[in-house]
Amino acid sequence: MMVEQSPALIVVVPLMCALITPIIGLVKKEWCYYWVLLTLLAATVFSVVTMGRVLSEGTIRYFLGNWDPPYGIEYVIDHLNAMMLVIISGISFLVAFHSKESVADEMPGRIVFFYTIFLLQVTGFIGIVITGDVFNLYVFLEIASLAGYALVAIGEDGAPLASFRYIILGTVGACFYLLGVGYLYMVTGSLNMLDLAQLLPELYHSKVILVAFAFFMVGVAVKMALFPLHVWLPDAYTKAPSSSSALLAPLMTKVAAYVMIRIMFTIFEPCFSMEMLPVTAVLSWAAVIAIIAGAVMALAQRDLKRMLVYILVSEVGYIALGVGLANRNGLTGSILHILNDACMMMTLFLIVGAIVYKTRTRTIADFRFLHRKMPLTMAALVVAGLSVIGIPPTCGFFSKWYLILGAVDAKQWIFAVVLLLSSLLNAVLFFRVIEYAYLEPRAEDDHGHEEEGVIIRIEEAPVTMLLPIFAGVAGIFLFGIYSGKIISTIIQYAVPTCF
Amino acid sequence: MEVIFSVQPFAAVLVVLGGAFLILFTGEHRRNLRETWTILTSLILFSLVVSLTPTILRGGLIEFTLIQLTEGVALQLRVDEFGMYFGLLASGLWILTSFYSIGYVRGLKEHGQTRYFFNFAICIMAAIGIAFSANLLTLFVFYEILTVATYPLVIHKETSEAIMGGRKYLVYTLTAGVVILFAAIWIYSMTGTLDFKPGGFVKGHGTSSTLTLLFFLLIAGFGVKAAIMPLHEWLPTAMVAPTPVSALLHAVAVVKAGVFGCLRVILYVFGPEVLHELDLWLILAYVTAFTVIVSGMYALAQDNLKRRLAFSTINNLSIIVMGAALITPHAVTGSIFHIGSHGFMKITLFFVAGAIYVKTHKQNISELDGIGRQMPITMGAFAIAAAGVAGTPPVCGFISKWYLALGCLEAKQIVFLFVLLTSAMLDIAYFFPIIFNSFFKKPKDGVVLHFNEAPMMMVIPLSLTAIISVVLGIFPSAIFNFFNLASLAATKIFGGM
Amino acid sequence: MLEFIVGKYNFWIYIILMMIGFYAMIEKNNLVKKIIGMNIFQTSIILFFISIAYKKGGTLPILHHAHAHGEQAYSVAEYINPLPHVLMLTAIVVMVATLGVALAVVIMIYRKYHTLEEDEILKASK
What is the pLDDT of residues B425-463, one digit of tens each? Predict the structure, then answer.
């Protein structure tokens, strides 16, 4: 019974547990942490079970309250969804695991509040990816966004203002999405994604549909932080507390990218985006600019977290580029990159959290001796950096391989060159950090006799922080090595067959 | 032709990886245990690699698939004659270099020794992976790992000069990597496969302008590590690394990996027919000939011993690529053989440079007068190796130059024969004074007249490599069956030719 | 042309309202005015949805004698569409929640900077 109801349970469990969290917090604040871990562990288990069901049975259609679509709301879980569910629950679990000391350190009076909103955020994400109804998606999108606004606002100085800007821009985006839903409803009378997919093809020449599509794209682009609608991202994610940004950075933009993929390829047929409107062309160019602009702006940053946030803008560009190329390899690379980037960004932001917790600084120039103080964390940073650069056998290489292959297939040489160039830019970024952290400037003719002078004790991050970081590192290697398997079992089915 | 599916190639890679992590975790406090791991791993690796030889000599192949990515491409290891050759070279020399390294770092009381040995092991793992790669993608994967693992070794000294050298190294090699990736993906998109085949596999695909562009992209990408001018700039700057690093990596592993890649591209991706059709072989031969001459002249101008050796390396690497570019059986045999023979000779020379430095802290040639009387064994080895580089029998360099000369005649290009002769003259011109001064000139300050050799841990390896160079010159197949492998590879490539 | 304006008056109204809200969000300095602009923005969309539910001559979608359902056929065309109304109930809730969060954030800002003018806040936070 549990297995049959698992689609609903995945959403309901975090939601209910979020509401119970304050009650637990009244009793004893520290228990909230364990409660959240338990909830997210349950969510992860449900996600994995659902993934297993999808792999063996194919697409699952779950009718909420047993109302048949298109009257009722249904949850549709196909391979793409199932993968997103596992990503979301897995990453939230690891981030929650990591958050124990970080939360107590950065926002001591708000532990209960944080964990409640954390669970609501996860509920929102899960709801977005699991639902098969466009309006339901809007509701969950707003749940996720609101929780996000709150999670950002409790950060350091300047966080409330950054959050306020995020609220304004995010609401505009969500409202555009809502308008798109309304226009679609006006001409088709349906809100169900699969139903729309059947009803829409006859109406492709209608202006209403074109406008609806445009509204959708802009709205989702705001949420996805696609250049040039990314302006809310840098301040918001930099000023947010470490655990918040560790949750939001890997997931929010990827979930929004998922929404874009759904709209472009499930609701509207792929040929619509390619032929009716030159959306894929516009998308690819915006993505290319995002890739370069993100990397270039990251070069100018002194603060590690801000640098990572700009890299995030760049990574979103990769995903959008894969979608914009609109061929099999490009889309495979894009979806694979959703997985890989979520893993990499989580690892990177968790590392930043650990560094902030131990050294209270995020400025790269202050990282001297850090490799002796926190050797394990720094090693993880090196691995994650190599993955962003795209050095095999880390996962970042494999998604880049498919994206470049997609670009070459589409004969878009400029895109391929841009992708390769961004690897080099990322290399500059990360080797700069590595140089600061690993090398201690020595005098010219010094032969570096051993271990003289400064004695640095190892003060590594606590185990609850290290374990998720290592899980991330393991993921970076495993997702890379098994990328072929992942593609052949999951992603292959997520890419629309008309390519 | 038998194809055996065995995990042995991968086991070789894994053994080194495991050894590297054992080294890392043993750390500073139990030094002797850590050094034992290095030596043990090198011995096990060598025996694993040697055990693959009999099958290869019979003409067979050994294959192992790591990960299947898509239908056309996989991360795959396949041992053929050429790969076997390079694998034997890298693993054999690693044993000697390990002993030498231990002597060197302990003699100088270097910092960061664990990091050094760890990265060294990873580099060797990458070299073995490159040797055993079955296709361009696997080669690329291990190539990048090699780049990343050599960086900490280049900047080992951590002076600002070293850091600058490291940055330059990264800029050159990462850009090259990106270029290779682009070309590889393009080839895959065009032909649907990336597997190496003797005689090439791109024939029949793509227009001639596409193929020409791809050829130059790939040669440029691999040419950075192979130090073909004008992409050679990183090599002299990287001499700032400790000498064992320069010795093994920049005389053997890294640069030979670049040359290996170039040869794979010339002989196993494009192949003689395509290159003859498009006349690309002649262009490449001229470019490398240019490097041969110019680097020889640069070498004359250097006073720093390691820098002179660096330019000599550039010289010899381009001789190898030039030989392969001539695409005749003898030239290819000579070229492949020279990879190994030059490896042994050059490593001797670098070992000597390091021994001199450890004993006397001297780096410049002008300071080396009379040092031969203090360190006769060391300088004797130097003399033998230098003679070999110039092509003097009975050292092995003669054999490779002989075959290369035959190849020039076969290809009916006398020009390159003159290039080879000129380079031999230049070799004599820049090596002979060193040998002469060290034995016959009055010693400068700091040099004593009685026997005071470098530490044994260093002298023994360098003597061994010198002796091997001579043995290899007299019995070319005695050591690791080098010559047999080289000629076998050439035969397979030229097939019906 | 007249037909175009008068016939689609609901579109015109909602667009004009939306642009007023948008203008307020961007141009106004005071944070609370920005929030009001955001509200106007969202409200215009809600009005739009409601407007598309209307049918000429339609009546409220409430069934009399509902316990006799299944016996009579109801002509759907006589009732205005209830679905957009229902959707907009949800949207109004979302709007209120957003308003709540925004105001909470504004209170946090006020506590720190003691002003609600954006330019002063930016100057203070440099």
Answer: 888 888 888 888 888 877 766 656 666 677 777 788 888
Cross-strand partners of B135? B195
Q: For residue B422, how many other CB atoms are within 10 A of its CB?
A: 15
- Listed by number, the residues of chain A in 169-188 with a beta carbon closer than 8 Å to a beta carbon of chain B are none
CB A456 within 8 A of CB A369: yes
Report the run of H or E that residue B37 belongs to, with start and end. helix B31-51
What residue numbers bound the domain in which C40 lies? 2-55+78-125
Binned at pLDDT 50, 70 and 90, residue A483 comes out as: confident
**Best mutation site among A368, A383, A391, A428 for testing chain B: the one with the most B CBs within 10 Å?**
A391
The single-letter code of the amino acid at B43 is L
| Confidence band, pLDDT 50/70/90 cuts, at residue C21 | very high
Q: What is the pTM of this model?
A: 0.87
User: CB–CB of C45 and A182 under 8 A?
Assistant: yes
Q: Does C73 reside within a domain?
A: no
Q: Is C42 part of a structural domain of the chain? A: yes
Q: Do A444 and B159 touch (CB under 8 A)?
A: yes
Examine residue C64 and state whether it is found in any structural domain, yes or no.
Answer: no
Nearest to B410 by CA among B331, B352, B473: B331
SS3 content of chain A, % helix, strand, coil (to 5): 80, 5, 20
The torsion angles phi and psi of B63, rounded to 5 degrees, stand at -125, 150
Closest of A487, A495, A472 to residue A91, by C-alpha: A472
Q: Is the pLDDT of residue A304 over 80?
A: yes
- Asked whether the beta carbons of residue B174 and residue A427 sit closer than 8 angstroms, the reply is yes
Q: Is the peptide bond before A228 cis (omega within 30 degrees of 0)?
A: yes
A393, A439, A445: residue with CB nearest B158: A439
Q: What are phi and psi of A442, to 5 degrees?
A: -120, 165
Structural domain spans, chain B: 285-497
In this complex, do C45 and A175 lie within 8 Å of one another by their Cβ atoms? Answer: yes
Nearest partner of B222 among B182, B270, B253, B177, judged by Cα: B177
Give the Cα-Cα-Cα angle A90, A93, A94 (nearest 5 degrees). 90
CA distance B216 to chain A (A): 16
| Domain presence at residue C92 | yes
Per CB-CB distance under 8 Å, the chain B contacts of A403 are: none
Q: CA separation (Å) from A142 to A136, A146, A171, A215, B345?
A: 10, 6, 8, 16, 70
| CATH number of the domain residue C51 falls in | 1.10.287.3510
CA angle B175, A433, B253 (to 5 degrees): 45
**How many structural domains are present in chain C?**
1
Say if the Cβ atoms of A482 and B160 lie within 8 Å. Answer: no
| A178 contacts on C by Cβ (under 8 Å) | 45, 91
Lowest mean pLDDT among A294-308, A454-468, B119-133: A454-468
